[in-house]
Design a protein that fits this description.
Blueprint lengths: L2 H23 L3 H21 L4 H9 L8 E10 L2 E7 L5 E2 L2 E3 L6 H13 L1 E13 L11 E13 L7 E7 L14 H12 L6 E2 L1
Parallel strand pairs: 1-6, 5-8
Antiparallel strand pairs: 1-2, 1-4, 2-3, 2-7, 5-6
Helix pairs in contact: 1-2, 2-3
Length: about 210
Amino acid sequence: MNHRTSKWIDWAQEIFSLSQSGLTYSGNEYDIGRYKRLQEITAEIIANQSEIAKESVLKSFSMQAGYITPKVDVRGAVVQEGKILLIQERADGRWAMPGGWADLGNSPASVAEREVWEESGFRVKAEKVVAVLDANRLEPFEFYHAYKIIFLCKLLEGEPRTSYETLAVDFFDPDHLPPLSSYRTNETMLQEVFAHVENPDRRTVFD
């Protein structure tokens, strides 16, 4: 992503965030109309600068009620005998650490443990936060701002098992990684995981 491209994304995000805050807190029908028009303009900007249809953008906007805050993506890093657990995503056929969006009412650690179980068939215990990252610095770009939390997890029990979200489950040596689903998991993240395995006293990385 070049600097020029990132600027229009920044502007579109800011316009949308301001308009959504206005819709949340304004009781004036004229202001509400203006804020809705700002969201339409934002959708038009995105549609004209990408392959996303305006209608799809507006539909996504309608799901973001209230004051805008970042979404949270939680990943479980499980290393066994020098190899890391990865799952093959049905969405793109590429590989990633098990994980997904955090649900309301669940702690981040419990999300990581549940996602590993559901996507791979292994029971784990989250033991340490490896990293808290600004996912909007990663490509491919997702319009809504997101944070990524990576937990280092201890494998307790289980057998590899696929799910409706996964095509395959396996452990990989860091020198022989499969094609990665880079927005979900990239090589830099995996390198950081292995660094924490090698040095338990290593500090959490954060943006």
